[in-house]
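Lesson 9: reading folded outputs for more than one chain in a single document. The general rule is that every protein is listed as its sequence immediately followed by its structure tokens, and records are never interleaved. Here is the first one.
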Amino acid sequence: MDDKLRDFVPGTVALVGAGPGDPDLLTVKAVRALSCATLVVHDGLVDDRILALAPANARRISVAKSRARHTLAQESINALLVAEALGGAMVVRLKGGDPFIFGRGGEEVEACRQAGIPVQVVPGISAAIGGAAEAMLPLTHRELSSAVSFVAGQCKGLTDQDWSGLAGKGRTLVIYMGVATADQIADKLIADGVSPDMPVAVLEKAGRPDARALRTLLTDLGGMIAREKVKSPALIVVGDVVLRSDADDRLAAFAKRVEGVK
């Protein structure tokens, strides 16, 4: 056996980052893991072209999650990985973006370790990194931002989360899973002292053929998402770096609406 394939053998689990969607953004190691899989347990948003890289006879199980519905609870996914590996499968747990960035990869690794199953993690290009690159949006910039933070916008007790200091001058804030709570997010940041005129971008379906990057002001974030009918998956980027991006400007529509109110 090729030494490079020895890690991907029956009875093991590999958590593999599928990146933001474009198969060209997979790592070489991710492709190698998929080529050895006998079972692929994948997120619902993983591109079909990536799934096609696994052998034709490999089983494929979707464990898609959405805000309102989960195909399997996380505990059941953990149990599935363990049971299949104990049964002799070479399991690839294929996750959008990177397994350790809001991917629950840490929980799955712990479950495998507790069961004595060899497990490894193959990192992927995160949605934030891939989406920002696609929109020519530098998350850090020598003149504009020396820090970047990642937060989840869809979580229990959102209003109780302490985001103070994460957004503002000289900083970039990237919010995952924030489309459904955009109005609350804007209110929360403004209440914490972020200017209502802070530029924001929404990166929709990064890495896919129908990707969009839209730009407006923080105070208009929820309104723009509603007007443009933005759908998940989408990222929200808050900070002056947004002005250096190729995002389509939606400030004119917002200004026209504000002028109408006056």
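And here is the second record, again sequence then tokens.
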Amino acid sequence: MAPLSRDTLRDTVIDAILAVAPEADIDALPAGRPWREALEIDSFDFLNILVDLEKRLGVGVPESDYHELETLEGLLDYLERRLAA
């Protein structure tokens, strides 16, 4: 897979979130705020989003790394690192 731009990666993450939680208001997500809290994503939906991202990107996220995914920027940073590895 060719490297994804940050914008393309962000669009992929947003698509995965909206596939699970179509009512999520991504535009209202404040920078630096935990995205799960801001979008009212429960743990089941969170896991479904991660499964969707694994299908789309081929990147699995072990439970021990969940703390790195608190903000949308943190999630994007994590995925960029994993895709570059």
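What the second record shows: The mean pLDDT is 93.
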